[in-house]
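Subject: Sanity check before I submit

Could someone independently write out the structure tokens for this chain? I want to compare against mine line by line before I put it in a report. The sequence has 480 residues.
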Amino acid sequence: MKRIFLIICFLAALIVAIIQGIGLVLPDKVSVESFRENGFKNVMRTLGVIAAEPHPAASKRQELVRAYLIKEMNEMGYKVTEQKFHYTANDLGLKFVRDEQGNVEDEISTHSELSGTNLIAKLKVPSPKGTMLIISHYDSVRTAQGASDNGMAIASVLQLMRDLSQRTDIKNNVIFLFSDAEELGLLGVRHFVKNIDEITSQSIDLVLNFDARGNNGVPLLFETSEKNFALVSEWNRSAYKPVAFSFSPIVYQMLKNDTDFSVFLDMGFTGMNFATILGDEHYHRMSDTVENLNPGTLWRYQRTLRDLGIHFAIKEVTRFSRESVDAVYFPVPYIGLIIMPAFVAFSAGFLAFVLSISLAVKNIWFSHSSESVSKIQTILRIFSGLLSLAVALIVPTASYLITLPVLLFLFMDLMLREFNRFSLALILLIICIYITCIIYVPIVYLVVVGLHANIVGSVLALLLILFLGLVTASFWNRAD
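---
Independent answer below. Compare away.
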């Protein structure tokens, strides 16, 4: 009877966790009332103009997009500075992309000299507490209309500017940078940084960058500056269903991609980098259109950007650059992000190591069983403890992937073996299965569907299956 109950509990926890885990990285169904909100309607209208055609840097269409953006900002009351810069094809070397049919074509013209134009607008307040910079690039590649990359960010930032212009509680100066020629190698933002003293006499305390790699999913906080505990915690307090994984910068660095934020990160600025990554099959292709953009993704993106911008505009942003603790974090349903200082993650790894070794030693010295199953379980306990400690020491931002499941398993084992508390052990088993799936399922989904890294995703899925099998088998053998 116990085993039947165990199977039911296992399957229930597994199914619920898989559904909720995938749901973490997919946009909600948006209500009709949300689509009728004036701010969202403005975003849709702006996006329709920007993403009507491809608008690469130095193109005629980009000039039209630029004129439209300037007109919109002027009507809000912002004074716009056009920051021009020049570059040549010879200086860059030719950068190639593939069109929708797979044909290779030049991303940049071979003209002797090309020019780009950054658009800069400022919101100044009396006696500012700090200065915040919000960045989004407004050029597309030559082979895409750019609805997601980067039209929805531009349209959302414009609406944020409208929102802020109507508020009286802003505490920080806000600089809005619409950078040009990002797709050609971050040229616009590099020029901005070289001339930053001409733009602002105050130091920039917080940088927020918004980009996209696909037209589906939710906006992910995939990169931050170091010492980010206070920054991520502050965002988590105000965000609507925040999604972020503390180990994602490691994956991002392996992809060898860059965004405008990379320039500021290299210079030691404090900030956060957001993007969508699902719908990668439309990335830099002519299918990156408004029609193919998931409406739920657009709604979630603009809400995240607007809420984030307003929240930090009214906060004292200077304190975040002084924060001296790295954070480990991951999303869970209904709560938001679980955030802990890095030393807590290390402590969890050390605790898992001590507990696993203690249980293994006790099993070796005090158990009278010579069964091979018992020996294998002892070896696995020792290995899991060593692995938890090693990961906590070497890659603390990813350590929770190992230490949390291992700790829950060890505590379950302790309750079952040492104290013979079946009910408590069963609760810990269900929690272990649920938490482990919540941790791994969204990652596997993003890796396979978003990054198309099927091998990596398969390995992660296999590890998940093996661990769940081990935990359940350990419980099963004692459920008589």
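---
OP: Matches mine. For the report I'm noting this point. The first helix runs from residue 2 to 24.
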